Amino acid sequence: MLNYGNEVTSLVQTAPAQTASSGGMSSLLILALPILLLVWMFWTTSRRQKAMRNFSSSLSVGEQIITSAGIYGTIRHLDDQSAWVEVAEGITLRIDRRAIAMKQSDAAGGGPASAAGSDATGPADTTGQ
To answer: Where in the cell is it found (predicted)?
Structure first.
């Protein structure tokens, strides 16, 4: 008959040591993952803010822009905080510079002023007549 008593005893004695070391590793992961997540969030936020600062400083008078509300216009005056945007002939809006979402040349669709066959007052005639 085979004697398994010594082998079982040796396995039982080594099992807690292995569990303790893997428990320490899981505790380390539980602490490290939220820290890594916070670092990643701060990094992406600062990168986005830097891109917005660069965009805002690149704006100049005469550029055609689109606001975050979807208003198309042309910049007529800029200061540190505000932009005066002409949305129609003789109609100028004062908006916060942070509300300017993009330049019309950067827009994927091109905007209504750059669409073929359209003018600044309305949409293009797409009926083909």
So the answer is: Cell membrane
**3-state secondary structure (DSSP) of residue 2:** coil
Chain-centroid distance of CA 83 in Å reads 23
Both 41 and 74 in one domain: the answer is no
Show the domain range for 90: 64-106
Whether the CB-CB separation of 106 and 115 falls below 8 Å is answered with: no
Looking only at the bridges linking them, the beta strands covering 91-96 and 72-78 are unpaired
Same domain, yes or no: 53 and 68: no
- Rounded distance between C-alpha atoms, residue 95 and residue 82, angstroms: 6
Task: Say if pTM beats, i.e. exceeds, 0.85.
Answer: no
pLDDT digits (tens, 9 = 90+) for 16-31: 545 555 677 788 888 8
Distance from C-alpha of 58 to C-alpha of 37, rounded to nearest angstrom: 32
